[in-house]
Design brief:
heterotetramer; A: 236 residues; alpha/beta; three-stranded antiparallel beta sheet; B: Glutaconate Coenzyme A-transferase; ten-stranded mixed beta sheet; three-stranded mixed beta sheet; 4 helices; globular
C-alpha cells in the first residue's frame, strides 16, 4: 500500500546530507514551511545550496537556517526586504554566495527541471547585466536568452490539505513556487495542515498530483513567519 | 514655479490611460495608488505576480489572511471572480503578453525607452531584481510613474541610463509630476503638461532633448 | 464592466477569416467543442490550419470541418483512429497537409507559445525521423532537440463551468489540451456547459484564469461526438 | 514445440517485475492486461497521458462518463485519490522521469534497446506517433510485451530495427511468449524461459545473437 506519510518533521528531513541542494517553497512569509525549516536546523546539515524567491525574514525559518551558518549559497530573485537582516549581513561579510535569477525565469527554470526540459529561451534579461555570458539568440526578429533547468535534491513544501498518496492543495497565494518545486526535486517533503483520507480531495482540484511528492508530515497548527516575527521570536 | 501634479494626481492621470477591461499589474510605491483612481464606468483586473488575478484592496487589520499577500508582501484581499495559480503560470501571463498594462516606478528612463529601476550598481548594494525584468519584457504597455527629477534635482528622464538596465526600449509612456511623456522614435515627447507647468521647465528638468506638445 | 459572454456560437466564430490558424481543444471525443465546430462549418472560413491531437471521428465535429474542405493543413500527433475516415481519405488523395508532432511536444509547444518562450529543448524524437532537419544539442551528456512555440489566431474550447470574466473549469479528462490552447491563441472562444455568476467558481479551483479567454457562449446541453457517431449523424 | 506464455501470462509475468507503489503507464493492447495481474500486496497507480493519475478499470456500459477516457480513447473510471491535469503537466510527468514503468507493445526491438512501434514506414501509411516518442524517452523503465515473432514468423527481436525508430536505446526488458529478455551492454540476454521453452528455440526465433540464461 502506498503511504507517504511520515510521523515527524525530524524524520522527514533526517537524510538531507551536507552539501545538498534544497528548494524551499514560499514567497516571503506566505507558504514558508517553517516547521520543516526548523527541523532542518535541528538536523544540522551544512553547506547547503538553497533555492527560494527570497532569503527569509527576522530570525526564524529560512533566515534562521541561514543565520545558523548552514547555507553556502542562495539562489533567489529578491534577497532583501524590510525585515531581512540575516542574509544581508552575511553577504556583506562575504560569508554566503548569491545567484540572482529574475522571478519568472526562476519559476520557469524550476518547472522545466521537473518537466525534463534542459533549457529554454526567454526574453527576460536581454540587454541587461544579468544576460552577460549567456547565449542570446534571435527568434522571429526578437532576442532571447538561453536559460538552463534548475534541479534540487530536496524540496521543503507547506501545503493546506494532503492525502496519503501525496495529492496536495494549497491556500491562496501560499501556492506560489511550491507546485513547481515539488516537480523539480528528487525528494519532495511536505508539511500539510490537514491530512485527509484517500479520496478526500476532489480530483478536479488537486494542485500537486501525488506523483511529485515523497513524504508528508501533518503539521496541523503551523506557525506563520509573520506571527513569529511580530513576537520577535528567534530559532533555535 | 508650480508644484505640478501630486503623487495621487499622477496616479489618477495614469489611470485615465488604462482602457476598460484591462489586466493590470501595479508596481510598489506610487503605482499602487492607481487602484484608487479607476475612472467611472471602467473595470480593471489586477494581477499580482505571486499568483493571483482579481486582487482587491487591503483588508482591515483584523480581517487579514496570512496566506493572502501581494508581490510587495502586503496583505490584500481577493475579489469575486479571482483565481490563484502557481508562479510559472503567473509569469506565463507576464512573459506571454497577456497583461495589458504594467505601471512601474523607476530610477531612470532613457529617451529610447530603456528603464533602470532595480539596482544603482553600487559596489556594496545587494542585487535584487524580483519580477521587474520579466514585467518590462512581457507586458504589452509599460507605464512609468515617477517624479521628474530625483530629490537632489537630478533628471530621471535622460539620454542614456547610468544605472544597470532593467530592460531595453520597453517603456511606452511616463507620468511625472510635471508632464505626461511618450517615448517616440524621435525620443521623449510631451503629450500633456501638468496644470501651471510650462514646457520650458520640463525641458530644463529633463536630461536630454524633449519634444514639446503638438 | 467586463463581460465576455456572447449570445450565440454563430456570433462567437463570425470573425474567423480564411487562412486562420485554429486550435481545437479535445482529445478524441472528450472535450471536443462540437457546437463551435459546427458553427465554424456554417460560417464557412476556408484554408484553415487546424491544431488538435487528432483529426476527428465519424462525420461530425472536426471530421466534418475537414470533410467540408475547410482545412488546408492539420497539425496533430495522431491523425488516424478506428472511427476516423474523413482525414485519411483526403490525405491519401493529397488534398490535405499533415504535420506530425509527438503528443508531449505538441502540448509543450502550445504551452510555451502562451508563456512567451519561443523555443525549448526536449529529448523526444532524438534519433528518429521526426528529428531530421532539427537542431540537436547536448546538455549534461544527453541529446535534445530544439522545438519552437506553436501559436494560433483562434482557439475553440469546450469547458464545464465559466463566469463572465472567462474563468473556466473542465470536466475530468475533457480538460486535456484546452487550458494550454486558451493560453496560446490570440482569440480564445469557449463554449461552456454552465455559465455562473462572478464568484461562482472557487478561486482555488479555477483551471483557466479569465485572462486567457476572450468569448464565452453558454451551450447548456452540448452534444457529444461519440453520441452523434453512435447515431450515425453527419454535419451539416 | 511448446506454445509458451499466453497473452495473459505475458502480462502477469511483466506485472511481477513492477515494484509496489510504482506509477505505471500501460500502452494499448497486451500491455493493458497488466492491470488485471497486480501481484498480491502491491499497489500501482496508473497514469494515462491524456490527463489522469489513478485510472481505474473500465465502467459498466450504463455507468460510462463520456468525459472520462484513457489515452486509447476507451472509457475508464477514476479511483479514490485520482487527479486530473492538462496535457503539459501530464507530459511533464513523462518527460521529467516521474513515471516509473511504461509497458508498450512493439513491432521491432533491437539488441541495443532501440524500439520501433509507431510506423512501418510504408509509403502509403499515414504517420501517427501519439505519445510513444515521449514515453520511451521519459519513463524510467521501458518494458515491452510482444510476441517473439510476427504472425508470419519473422523475428521481432533483431540486430537493428528496419522500421522507423520510436526511440534509441530506451528498452530495458522484453516479455515475449517465449522468454523474458533483458537489454544488456552485450545485447539480448534471456533472463527466464517460459515453461517448456528451450533456449535453442528462443535463439532460433530471434533475429540476432541472444545470450542464454546465466
Amino acid at each position: 500500500m502506498i503511504n507517504k506519510t511520515c510521523p515527524t518533521v525530524a524524520e522527514a528531513v533526517a537524510d538531507i546530507p551536507d552539501g545538498a541542494t534544497v528548494m524551499v517553497g514560499g514567497f516571503g512569509a506566505s507558504g514558508s514551511p517553517i516547521e520543516l525549516l526548523h527541523a532542518l536546523i535541528d538536523h544540522g546539515a551544512r553547506e547547503l545550496t538553497v533555492i527560494n524567491n527570497n532569503t527569509g525574514n527576522g530570525e526564524v525559518g529560512l533566515a534562521a537556517l541561514i543565520g545558523n551558518g548552514q547555507v553556502r549559497k542562495m539562489i533567489c530573485s529578491f534577497p532583501r526586504s524590510s525585515q531581512s537582516k540575516v542574509f544581508p549581513k552575511l553577504y556583506r561579510e562575504g560569508k554566503i554566495e548569491l545567484e540572482i535569477v529574475p522571478q519568472g525565469t526562476l519559476a520557469e527554470r524550476i518547472r522545466v527541471a521537473g518537466a525534463g526540459i534542459p533549457a529554454f529561451y526567454t526574453p527576460t534579461t536581454v540587454g541587461t547585466v544579468l544576460a552577460e555570458g549567456k547565449e542570446v539568440r534571435e527568434f522571429d526578429g526578437r532576442q532571447y536568452v538561453l536559460e538552463p533547468w534548475l534541479k534540487a535534491d530536496f524540496a521543503l513544501i507547506k501545503c493546506e490539505v494532503a492525502d496519503r498518496l501525496g495529492n496536495l492543495t494549497y491556500n491562496k497565494t501560499a501556492r506560489n513556487f511550491s507546485p513547481l518545486m515539488c516537480m523539480a526535486a528528487t525528494t519532495t517533503i511536505v508539511q500539510a495542515r490537514k491530512l485527509v483520507a484517500r479520496g478526500g480531495i476532489d480530483p478536479e482540484s488537486v494542485i500537486t498530483p501525488g506523483i511529485f511528492v515523497n513524504r508528508i508530515v501533518e503539521v496541523s497548527e503551523p506557525v506563520h513567519e509573520d506571527t513569529l516575527i511580530a513576537a520577535e521570536r528567534s530559532y533555535p | 514655479m508650480s508644484t505640478g501634479w501630486t503623487r495621487e494626481q499622477m496616479a489618477a492621470r495614469a489611470a485615465q490611460d488604462i482602457p476598460d477591461g484591462s489586466y493590470v499589474n501595479l508596481g510598489i510605491g506610487i503605482p499602487e495608488l492607481v487602484a484608487k483612481f479607476v475612472p467611472e464606468g471602467r473595470e480593471f483586473i489586477y494581477h499580482t505576480e505571486n499568483g493571483m488575478l482579481g486582487m482587491g484592496p487591503p483588508p482591515a487589520d483584523d480581517e487579514r489572511d496570512l496566506d493572502l499577500m501581494n508581490a510587495g508582501k502586503k496583505y490584500v484581499t481577493a475579489l469575486p471572480g479571482a483565481s490563484y495559480f502557481h508562479h510559472a503560470d503567473s509569469f506565463s501571463m507576464i512573459r506571454g503578453g497577456h497583461i495589458d498594462v504594467c505601471v512601474l516606478g523607476t530610477m531612470q528612463v532613457s529617451a529610447n525607452g530603456d528603464i533602470a529601476n532595480w539596482s544603482t550598481g553600487a559596489p556594496d548594494a545587494i542585487p535584487a531584481v524580483g519580477g521587474a525584468m520579466d514585467l518590462v519584457q512581457g507586458v504589452k504597455n509599460i507605464f512609468v510613474i515617477t517624479q521628474h527629477t530625483t530629490r537632489d534635482g537630478e533628471p530621471k528622464l535622460i539620454e542614456k541610463c547610468a544605472y544597470p538596465l532593467t530592460g531595453v526600449g520597453v517603456v511606452s509612456r511616463i507620468f511625472t509630476d510635471l508632464a505626461v511623456v511618450d517615448i517616440t522614435p524621435k525620443g521623449f515627447q510631451v503629450v500633456e503638461l501638468a496644470p501651471g507647468i510650462g514646457f520650458d521647465e520640463v525641458q530644463q528638468k529633463t536630461g536630454t532633448a524633449i519634444l514639446p506638445p503638438t
